[in-house]
Amino acid sequence: FDKVEVVNQLHADYVHSIVKNYTVNYDRTWIYDKIHHEINQFCSRHTLHEVYIDKFDQLDEILTETLQKDINVFAPGLSIIAIRVTKPKIPIEILSKYEKIEAEKARVMVAIQTQKLVEKEAETERKKAVIEAEKESMVAAIHLNRTLAEKMNMQLIATIENEMRFAKVKAEADAEMYRATKEAEGNKLRLTPELLQLETVRALANNTKIYFGEKIPNIFIDNAAQEVIRAN
User: Fold this and answer.
1) In this structure, are residues 30 and 70 in contact, taking their beta carbons and an 8 Å threshold?
2) I want to staple 221 with a disulfide (CB 3.0 to 4.6 A). Which of 80, 141, 147, 225 is the partner?
3) CB of 6 within 8 A of CB of 32?
4) CA Rg value for the chain
5) What does the pLDDT look like over 183-222, one tens digit per residue?
């Protein structure tokens, strides 16, 4: 690593104890010398590929956390603000290889992101199509329900009109039957046998006809009618 920078701060309340225990070069003891040891430990636990590519972006945080953990125990009051580490030096052949790997990795990431974008756009279009289809289905259902309601209302109105016409015809028929019944009852009471005989005589009297023979045939008049004729 060409360059390792450590930004630290010593709190005023701990200056005396820190300087007393570790002299004014406390930062060399707990930071500069220790950080190289921690970097070596990190490199020994990881492959070159991990150090140079996969985990390099985590190195600053790992070193800060590791240093601060020991400082909090043995040199409280000293705080690590930030650590900045440059890329490690590696042979040119290996560097060229990793640059190709990085380029390929970047190309793959671009392809993945492009694929995700295409899939997202396709999913968006599918959702839009589903929403549009649901909207059209709802509109069609509303129109269908409206049409069915109109048909049902028309059928109900027609049924009511038919019932009204039927009721009117029935009422007229009932009235006519009632009139005919009452007329028949009146005629039955009025047309007694005596009245019928009288009407028959009157009809015969008004009907001037000449019959030759000794007597009027009984078919036209009965004894009662003959008595009326004799009386006249």
Assistant:
1) yes
2) 225
3) yes
4) 63
5) 777 767 666 676 667 667 677 666 655 454 555 555 444 4
What is the C-alpha to C-alpha distance for residues 26 and 75, in angstroms, rounded to an integer?
9
**Polymer length in residues for the chain:** 232
pLDDT tens across 1-59, in order? 778 888 888 888 888 888 888 888 888 888 888 888 888 888 888 887 777 777 888 88
**Distance between CA atoms of 43 and 87, rounded to whole angstroms?**
12
Q: What are phi and psi of 6, to 5 degrees?
A: -130, 125
Give the model's pLDDT for residue 71. 86
Q: What's the one-letter identity of residue 133?
A: A
For residue 55, what are the contacts with CB-CB under 8 A and spacing of at least 6?
46, 62
pTM value > 0.85: no
pLDDT in tens, 58-103: 888 888 888 889 888 888 888 888 888 887 777 777 777 777 877 8
Residue 176 CA to its chain's centroid (Å): 62
CA atoms of 219 and 195, how far apart (whole Å):
18
